Amino acid sequence: MKRILREGIWNVSVAVHSDTRSTKIWAGFNNQAYGIAVDVGSTTIAMHLCDLSTGAVIASAGMMNPQIRYGEDLMRRVSYVMMNPGGELLLTEAVRGGINDLIAEVTAEAKVDPDDILNAVFVGNPIMHHLLLGIDPTELGGAPFALATNSGMIVWASEVGMISNPDCRAYFLPCIAGHVGADTAAVILSEAPHMQEQMTLIIDVGTNAEIVLGNNERLLAASSPTGPAFEGAQISCGQRAAAGAIERVRIDPETLEPRFKVIGSDLWSDEEGFEEATKKIGITGICGSGIIEVMAEMYLAGILSSDGVIDGAMAAKSPRVVADGRTFSYVIRDGESEIKIYQTDVRAIQLAKAALYAGAKLLMDKLDLEKVDRIQLTGAFGSHIDTKYAMVLGMIPDCDLNEVQAVGYAAGVGARIALLNNAARDEIEEQVKTVEKIETAVEPKFQQYFVEAMAIPHKTAPYPELAKAVKLPAPKVLSDTSSAEGGRRRRRRSRVDAVD
How many domains does the chain have? Predict the structure, then answer.
């Protein structure tokens, strides 16, 4: 920030940021200039407002991506564009509108004029990246999943419809491949696996999980279509992480009674004062971390078989296991606001976690690895996962649990680094050129690995490191189960079609 004296009568302040690519002149003295770092996810959008003079985050906000009304996952949105002429314009308008809503929210919270926003950095998966820029994403809907651009770029903020200073510049980190986006580039910038000797597996858990594996000798990246189940969508009682959502669950293996914590309260449900503490916020559903924990706990307690079937025989042990048509469910909370896990919920998580594991396994094959040295989970959801339960479900390969960490919101951190440091932009643009891209959609072994990973924790892969820390149940074979219509025995259907 520079202060200039003009003929001893009045002065102006000139803010120059990012080697003069963003400039504003004020009458009088002003020592404040701001920027935003934005991660545009397919399910959620997260934004940080930063003071460019200090680097401090002064306000943050997030929201569901407004595009979700056009499709819960990326391929549904691409299909919408394909089947509806001009559909890409609607999707672009929706995401830009959401970003402007967040700008209004963070500037109001920080008492900042949007006109003082001089710089912005955006990261996101390739489809979100293209749509925000106003590029038709149709080519990303099928092989060879061609990017319209894979380089970093700077545009006027007005070109992407931002409410900000007219001279604001928006920088887009480079995408890596057709399904590995600028958000993964931001994760690499943040966590720097290319500067370490340990073989590190980094997973940005989201609707489209993005996976990085390697070290300072070689770095690979891929994506895996996990869908939105981990973030609460496609789950009967699922919701985003907000006040009132169940986020932690424990189940007594003897009585099968659950206890849980909800966002907005520090008390567990079996502690005195819980009902009073949660009366105002309510208990409204279960978010991603809670879904992972309850299903892992159900498996450890014997309610859930390794094939992912809720064992109806456990109904004789606890009223928490109840019949639902031809399958069973587990009641976490009874009463007026009942919350329970259905067989269809289990299947949705199985599909998601199997896709995640299969993607990681493919990368391990490329590097001829039987195991990795460490695992880092990141993302708006991944940063809140209890790593032990993620491994119990088989979301990730076996690893020493001491080397498995939830590292926070790495893509957002990477975006902030690029916002505040021009040299980092050059660094990541060069590094991205060295990353080897693996397209899981065309890999012949993906389907095999996916099917094997449907089991909990896995059908064939051993988990010796996990077994050191957690007592895993003996395999349970469910050849038949009681009919929910009155005790009539029936033959159990195969695992593939066990859920209607």
Answer: 3
pLDDT digits (tens, 9 = 90+) for 310-341: 999 999 999 999 999 999 999 999 887 899 99
Residue 268 sits in the same domain as residue 383: no
Could you tell me the residue range of the domain that residue 98 belongs to?
A: 33-172
Share of the chain above pLDDT 90, in %: 71
Same domain (yes/no): 79, 222? no
Shared-domain flag, residues 374 and 463: yes
Whether 458 and 389 share a structural domain: yes
Strand order in the sheet with 209-214: 404-406, 374-378, 200-204, 209-214, 219-224, 436-438
Within-domain flag for 357: yes
Q: Do residues 120 and 77 share a domain?
A: yes
Residue count (the chain): 500
The span from the CA of 253 to the CA of 17, in Å, is 58
Q: Residue 277 region, left (φ>0) first, then alpha (ψ -120 to 50), else beta?
A: alpha
In this predicted structure, the answer to whether residue 271 has a pLDDT above a threshold of 70 is yes
For 335, phi then psi, to 5°, come to: 100, -160
pLDDT at 492 over 70: no
pTM summary value: 0.84
Query: How far is the C-alpha of 68 from the C-alpha of 81, rounded, in Å?
Result: 13
Rounded Cα distance, 380 and 378, in Å: 7
Are both 282 and 380 inside the same structural domain?
A: no
Q: Are residues 223 and 250 in the same domain?
A: no
Structure tokens at 71: 């499709």
Residue 402 clears pLDDT 50, i.e. is over it: yes
Q: Note the pLDDT of residue 440.
A: 86
Digit-coded pLDDT (tens) for 455-476: 999 999 999 999 999 999 987 7
User: What pLDDT sits at residue 26?
Assistant: 63
